[in-house]
Amino acid sequence: MANESRPCPCDIGDRFDYGGRGQEVQVEHIKAYVCKPPASADKAVIVIHDIFGWQLPNTRYMADMLAANGYIAICPDFFVGQEAWKPSNDWASFNDWLKTRNAGKIDKEVDVVLKYLSEQCGAKKIGVIGFCWGGAAVQHLMLKNPHLKTGVSLYGVIRFFEDRSSLLHPTFFIFAEKDDHIPLDQVTLLEQKLKQNCKVDYKVKIYPGQTHGFVHRKREDINPQDKPYIEEGRKDMINWLNKYL
């Protein structure tokens, strides 16, 4: 487990030098990054950012990847104007920072985004993906939001919602074998609970040798040993969305 002076292992990883192909929009009280596919589409994916917030280039890169695969992708600011975590921040203050940013209290914002996607973008089928903090938020939404069709939780922090496993929609959980923040025994326990309680399709996959954030915070060109797993994780995510949207 991460030590107490550093309660979260979320270093920024490889910060992409990436501008994004989409645009920033205002959706009621929320700012959001939106990228649309080349051809018109009625399928959309809400992208839930990690602790580094909605403007992280890496997360926008993932949204653009979804758009290139035929989805309207939107990454809203789920911190609603509050500052994202900065790598220079004091890790001792992380737990206090987190208390004001609860991954289980985003329902109001999600409702606003769902309305925007359906009324302004013509989306009829909507899924959700999320990374780390956002991965936990995906699990929360899969437990309670009837309007979403499917979700992909990428290294979502299990301890936030570990006691709840009655998912409403097909959900894919991506984990890293060497994640300092999500020990494998937690993943095993999650699998056991899903097996006991879950009535919908789900999948839990552990990627060997990988660390927290590998799908969106590592660059293939400077981490050649990780490249096959980064690519596999992204492909698996897209395949899951294609199957259920």
UniProtKB/TrEMBL annotation:
Gene3D superfamilies assigned to the protein according to its UniProt record, in alphabetical order: alpha/beta hydrolase
Main location: cytoplasm
Keyword rRNA processing: no
Domain Dienelactone hydrolase: 30-245
GO molecular function, one term: hydrolase activity
SUPFAM superfamilies, per database record: alpha/beta-Hydrolases (SSF53474)
Superkingdom per UniProt: Eukaryota
Keyword list, A-Z: Cytoplasm
Family annotation (InterPro entries): AB_hydrolase_fold (IPR029058), CMBL (IPR042946), Dienelactn_hydro (IPR002925)
Pfam family, one: DLH
GO cellular component, one term: cytosol
Locations listed in the record: Cytoplasm, Cytosol
Membership in a protein family: Belongs to the dienelactone hydrolase family.
Name of the protein: Carboxymethylenebutenolidase homolog
Organism of this sequence: Himantopus himantopus (Black-winged stilt)
